[in-house]
Fold this protein.
Amino acid sequence: MAIRSLEKCAGDVARRLTRSGQVKVTFRERLEYVAVRGVLAFLGWLPHRLARALGAALAALAYLFWPRLGRVGLLNLRMAFPEWAERRRRQTLFGVFQNFGRMLADFSQFPRLKSSNIDELIVYDGFEHFERARAQGKGVLFLTAHFGNWELSSFAHGLYGFPCHFVVRELDNPLIGALVNRYRSLSGGHPIEKRDFAFQALRAFQRGEAVGVLIDQNMLEPEGVFVDFFGRAASTTPGPARLARKTGVPIVMGLVIFDRQLGKYRLRFDPVHWITGDDPEEEIRVNTQNFTRLIEDAARRHPDHWLWVHRRWKTRPPGEPPLYPF
């Protein structure tokens, strides 16, 4: 009965996407959707503590049986922390996978989270910085990264009474993409497709609203600017800096940190100061570098929070050889 129900849901979503002209859904994508929806539904049905325990077990299995991600993670950690012993790198990488398991469990519980119980999972830290930026009435550019439980940041912010827009990348499977965005939007937030970032963000700022954007992924060479990240050139999106320069919108950095003493997350806000310059393109590059430095500082303080399994240095400056042999 449960499988037939999930299959029906997959069919319903596929028909909606097809009617809207967005995409033609394959049989494989329907099967993937049924699997993902089933996992989320099962974890969401469990008590939160038990869901986290199961998420941790799944993460440990992924660490053992997903060797490609492990190879990328270890290589990244060797480049970022050459002074570390290999054992410490492996422990950090295992912590990254455990963070994935905790994220999956927490994400599955989004339908249960309300304004009345969100503080059991996450609390504010430095909220006055966001409030000061919001009070200017220009909107807020909310910079974040694949750090800690990044899916929880905008979701919790919405339940606390400050729903925001957030930039998302279109997933390969449109059914799963629609499902994930539905969960993300349960607290009042609004997804913005990456290709529509500039236009939609400008409209949001005109209404005095906040827009969150992840700024720590590798960009293809025509789209990115090279800035330093852990001592190596990293192709990075200049979009947020361009938008901030054009609009004068205040900027805050928002990262979700798991506080083991509290047993819950902290959504930490910090102000980001704009660095002015004479040359517009250099000003954009300098501020993109500053944004990236803040991410590096956070990753150094909490190394098991950042997404080391991402090939952050894949795009190389002209003439440089690739860093990833796989």
Strands lie at 122-125, 140-144, 165-168, 190-193, 210-214, 225-229, 232-236, 251-259, 264-272. The radius of gyration is 20 Å. The longest strand covers residues 251-259.
